[in-house]
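Retry 2 of 3 after timeout on previous attempt. Resubmitting structure tokens to design endpoint.
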């Protein structure tokens, strides 16, 4: 029985390591701007600006006199529950979580960003997007991993 318990404990720690994510507070994101640093694109800077209720993704085209795109704004909330069922009542209310739930109003579907790591001192966050395969249009793979650097 002791060896069975040890195996269960070992499996638990292995599963936690494989599915590692960290909890982030809304106050750590709201009012910040981030730049995608990995994957790196020397011609386009991909930017993220967070408020407490929405985040905006936009691009700065370095090859075109640093022209800024209008960007796209998504309502979002943080949560510890992994579900593609977007709960509008949690926008601006949910104060922490390991998942960023975003809603695309134009296409009427949601996606989830898993917060893999967050270093508040260095201003580095690694996130992996889990694409909703039930979305009307799915382009590319089911996951995208980005490393973001806080610039403001």
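Retry 2 succeeded. Sequence:
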């Amino acid at each position: 029985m002791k060896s069975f318990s040890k195996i269960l404990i070992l499996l638990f720690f292995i599963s936690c390591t494989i599915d590692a994510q960290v909890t982030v507070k809304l106050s750590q994101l709201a009012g910040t701007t981030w730049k995608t640093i990995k994957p790196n694109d020397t011609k386009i800077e991909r930017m993220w600006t967070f408020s407490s209720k929405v985040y905006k993704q936009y691009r700065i085209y370095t090859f075109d006199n640093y022209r800024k795109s209008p960007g796209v704004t998504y309502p979002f909330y943080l949560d510890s529950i992994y579900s593609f069922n977007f709960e509008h009542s949690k926008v601006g209310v949910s104060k922490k979580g390991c998942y960023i739930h975003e809603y695309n109003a134009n296409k009427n579907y949601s996606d989830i960003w898993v917060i893999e790591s967050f270093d508040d001192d260095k201003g580095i966050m690694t996130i992996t997007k889990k694409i909703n395969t039930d979305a009307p249009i799915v382009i590319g793979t089911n996951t995208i991993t980005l490393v973001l650097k806080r610039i403001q």
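Attempt log closed. Helices lie at 2-18, 26-29.
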